[in-house]
Amino acid sequence: MISVKEFDIREDEEQLAKLQDIIDLFVAAGYFRARIKSIPHFDRVVGGIVWCITLCNHTVNVDLFCSENATIGQKIALTEKVVEVLPLLKCPYTIEPYQIQGLDCIHIFPVVQWLVREAVRAKEQCGDSVRNHAVYQFAQRFYFSKDKCIEKQTHIFLNNCRSVKAKCLPQRIYKQKGDFKSPDLRTDVRCTLLEYGWRDVCDIAVQENTEWFENDKGDENMKSDQLLVQLSEMQIQPTNQRLSSKILAQIIDASDFDADELKKETGFVQRYQRSTSMAEKELMVLRKEEKLLDDSLENLQQRKEAQLRAMDEIDKRIAEFKQLVENSGVETVERLKHLLIEHDEIHKREMDFKANCRNELRELDEVLQQLKTFDPVEKKLKDDNDSVRNISLEAGQHLTSIRLELADLNRQIAAQQRVLDDIPAQTEISQYQRRIIELYNQMASKHRETKQFYILHNTLVDIKTFMKKEVDMLNNIDEVQDLTSKQSYKDSFVENLQKILKGVDTSLDKVSTKQNELQARRDKLYGEYQYLLEKERLYYKTVDDFKNACYENEQLRRRLEG
Length: 562
Description:
Helix content is 79%, strand content 1%. The protein is mainly α. Among the domains are: 13-141; 169-257, no CATH class; 330-422; 483-562. The protein has a two-stranded antiparallel ribbon with strand order 1-2. α1 runs parallel beside α2 (41-55). It is flat.
């Protein structure tokens, strides 16, 4: 019965999980090419990183161009440029180019997480500015029905306000007596306003507090009453009287009228600024405390991640050991198991033998103590001591031989362990194979390119030779143009042309022969290629038939056993 064994390439589960997290971050940020599974992992990761750096909208003096069909040299140069750009973006995490080339996703993930966060923030800022500009442009040309109603109501309200102000012009109801003289400008302004019925007027100033305002209001009312006594009431005229702006500007002088009020307002503003500065200092202190708390939280998270990575490393080593045992040969595993069982048995026998020796020694000591009390049997006691000593020596020699055997077994186990450790893992083998294939493809492309350059050079050399011959011939014709009338020259010229024609025919025959040889070689290689394709098809068909036969054989064996 032939058992069919399937071997899978061992992969790091933690690296695959981090790679999937990186792809999910790129897709969530908007880089949807990361979902295409046909693209290699390296191109998806590096393409997403370059996309995030471009989206961050920072000015860097580095050209980042990601191509899916790049060679190894171009990929290495691109990773070095990415590592060079990250410090310019003030990235808090560091990474090396070989980590990106080897897809060390555990170290790539923090950098990708920070880049995606910065890219999303930059996208939001750009989106807000574009949205505001679009709303502004829309508002310049279009209106919603609701906005039209609000604008119409606002227009009606403004018209009503203007009409009310036009109808409610100030009317003069008092007139100063002829002998009245105001002591200062402030009193003159107050009297002028009282003539038009403005009894509730007060100083235009910022009151420091409500108590001062209430005390001052009573004084202002008393002053207004005293001024009204000095004003003679007059009939309201049917026509409205208005003061010109020139007269009011002469009456109200801001420099003399608001001096005291500006001092009070300045004091209030200074107190407000002091309170604002104190609040800003407290806010800065709170922000520093918040930053310290954030730093401590980040340190705790880093310690947690380090512990988790250590646990994952231990689990990884355990899984690798299990995988190593599974991938090892059956004979090697069985031999190691047999050696371990023998080691345990020998150790157990050694412990049992030591225990028996201790018991026998204790019994012999007791017998010796008993025999020492009897003098007549001293000779017999000496004989017993000699026998006990001989037995002890034999037991010691046996123990030494067992220990030597145990040391030999330990050396064999260590040698087998070193042999197993020297065998490379499937992941390393697959990585070496992938790198070798990439180098081979690069060398093949360079060889093909160099071959094309050589062919082009040879063609240009031939063209140059023929053109030189043609130029020489034309120069010769031009030089001997005067001799063309002679018959002898004509005959020699015809002979030269015939020789040249023969040389051209010879060259053409050589080229045709070479072309035929190349065509025959091509046909032969094509036939061999078709033969190999047929053998490959037959091989795959035979493998499928063999698998089906093995499967049927397994089913029959199970039926027979059942």
